Amino acid sequence: TSAKPEHQLPDEIEPSTEPTRKVCDNDPRVTYEGGKYMAEIYIPTAFHGKLVGLRGTMRREIEESTECRLTIPRKGQKGNVEIKSFVGLENVQRCLDRIELLIAEARRTAPLTHFIAIPCNSAEVIQAFEMFKEAVIANERVPVSAVKHCYKPLKFWSPCHV
């Protein structure tokens, strides 16, 4: 019978050639790798223009004030905005905060683009609407003249149209 050769492990395990990314203890949004601090943030493509600004002015202003480098996906590409800094953790944190504030303001001022209509013609909703209508008409704090003119049953939507 022949003996099978045993597999031997090397005495020393060679270190991995891939750089290790370490998540910063102070801020889990930021990683540290090879002497630079990095972070990624998702920005919807509709707001990339706000981040870049007119002829790149907003991007340059953020990069100069925070001493970070921004990598923004080009038009038609998807991906996160990357922030890199060789200076320090605080710079990347400041850059992230500035971008978050800028995008929050852009969201607040953006025009509405969608309308959602949900059918509410179930028996429970129709019954609750009828109860609401009766409560408004029977409200004692509303003057009788207002009830006659403003709260006419014809002014309410038909329950089947709710």
UniProtKB/TrEMBL annotation:
Domain K Homology, residue spans: 35-104
SUPFAM superfamilies with a match to the protein in the record: Eukaryotic type KH-domain (KH-domain type I)
Domain of life: Eukaryota
Keywords on record: RNA-binding
CC per GO annotation: nucleus
PROSITE patterns xref list: KH_TYPE_1
Keyword RNA-binding appears in the UniProt entry: yes
Annotated region (Disordered), positions in chain: 1-23
Biased segments, Basic and acidic residues type: 1-10
Signal peptide location: none
One Pfam family this sequence matches: KH_1
Gene3D superfamilies per UniProt: K Homology domain, type 1
MF terms (GO), sorted A to Z: RNA binding
GO biological process annotation, one example: DNA alkylation repair
Protein's recorded name: K Homology domain-containing protein
The species this protein was found in: Strongylus vulgaris
Lineage, top ranks: Eukaryota, Metazoa, Ecdysozoa, Nematoda, Chromadorea
